[in-house]
Structure formats: C-alpha cells, structure tokens
Amino acid sequence: MGNALVFTDANFQQEVLDSPVPVLVDFWAPWCGPCRMIGPTIEELSGENAGAFRVGKVNVDENSQLAMTYNVASIPTIMIFQGGRLVQQFMGVQPKAKLQQALDEAKSA
C-alpha cells in the first residue's frame, strides 16, 4: 500500500472518529475485484489530500468488528466521517471526482 492509512478495530476511534479533519474510509478485502479496481483511486486521493483530509482502508477480513458496527454488507464500501460521525456512504466503485467532492463537502459542513 502507498499513502493510504491502515485503520483497524484497535485504532479506528483515534484515527477516524477523533480526527480533527474529515476522513475517507475504504472498507475492502484483498480477494475483492472491485476493491482492487478502486484501490489506485484511494491512493491518489490520499496523496493529493495529505494534510487536509485523512484517507485510509479497513480490511474487513481482519477487522470484522468494524464491518459489523457500520453494517458493511458489500465491498467496497466507502464512508466519509466528519467530527466522529458518518456523513456520507458509497457502495461499489466510485469515480474519483465524486469522492473528492464528498470530502470537500464534509470539510465545509
């Protein structure tokens, strides 16, 4: 993995919910084809938004508690958190521009 952070059951509270900036979380798994398709987009968003937003991934196979907590029924599922709460959610592969817009909206909310 490149720029994207790795979120886990153990660090999710600190890294995502307590973050002072909006956070994009990609719920994924290594065996998921669409997850691998959107992976480069997640990495690009992470690199391009360093400092302004946090961007990271949750491996649902390794962090099943988070997947259950947020009712992740299919992957990839992408969630945007702001101020400790879920503000937007997307399922499936999404265009980079749509995800960037969601981050920008969370920042200005």
Provide mean pLDDT, rounded.
94
Radius of gyration based on Cα positions: 12 Å
Distance between the termini: 30 Å
| Structural class designation | alpha/beta
Number of strands: 5
**What CATH architecture do you see?**
3-Layer(aba) Sandwich
Number of domains: 1
* Share in β-strands: 15-25%
Largest sheet: 5 strands, mixed
How many DSSP H or I helices? 4
CATH superfamily: Glutaredoxin
> Would you list the SSEs in sequence order as H and E?
EHEHEHEEH
Q: What ranges have pLDDT less than 50 throughout 5 or more consecutive residues? A: none
Strands of the biggest beta sheet: in what spatial order? 1-3-2-4-5
What name is given to the CATH topology? Glutaredoxin
Overall 3D shape: globular
Can you identify the CATH class?
Answer: Alpha Beta
Helix content: 25-40%
Characterize this entry briefly.
The chain has 109 residues and is α/β, with parallel strands linked by helices. The chain has helices at residues 12-17, 33-48, 64-69, 96-108, and strands at residues 5-6, 23-28, 54-59, 77-82, 85-91.
